[in-house]
Write a structure and sequence with these properties.
The protein has 160 residues and is mostly helical. Helix content is 68%, strand content 0%.
Length: 160
């Protein structure tokens, strides 16, 4: 059993590395994996046997340990990745965490997002400002080749 845990951790680490996570991001997710494995042991379950309802039990267990909804949501996100890894490895056919949504979390509302034409206008304005300052000698860190690149981009963007 302990050997299986090491294989699970090593394989999951490799999976997370392949997804481009940083070392600190990987370590954080492995900490969640330890917590999840502790719960699996208490419930006498194998990761490959877990169902949707079992994960609801895991969420209740986390809550009883003092975890807030946002933390539980993060845990479920890690567990979703774990099962995606196990699917890739051929150890499970289905991800039991796929349809789980944690209720009671305030969603971040994105306020006014710039439209493409507004972004384009800001970009053109910044190019004009940088070019003007560079030509006046007020911007010391823009090299001549960089200035030429800015002008080329400016001309290209004005064509569209």
């Amino acid at each position: 059993m302990n050997k299986d845990k090491d294989i699970l951790t090593t394989g999951f680490r490799s999976y997370l590395e392949s997804k481009g996570y940083t070392n600190s991001g990987i370590e954080g997710r492995l900490t969640v994996l330890k917590r999840y494995r502790r719960w699996l042991e208490e419930e006498r379950l194998e990761a490959e046997q877990v169902t949707y309802n079992d994960l609801l039990g895991f969420m209740k267990w986390c809550k009883s340990k003092g975890a807030i909804q946002r933390t539980i949501q993060n845990y479920i996100g890690v567990i979703k990745h774990l099962y995606e890894h196990l699917i890739r490895e051929g150890k499970v056919e289905r991800n039991p965490a796929t349809d789980i949504e944690v209720k009671g979390i305030k969603r971040k509302i994105l306020y006014h997002i710039l439209e493409p034409h507004e972004l384009h206008a800001l970009y053109n304005l910044s190019c004009h400002i940088i070019t003007a300052k560079a030509e006046q000698g007020n911007i010391g860190h823009v090299s001549v080749p960089r200035l030429k690149n800015i002008r080329a981009l400016q001309v290209r963007s004005e064509r569209h």
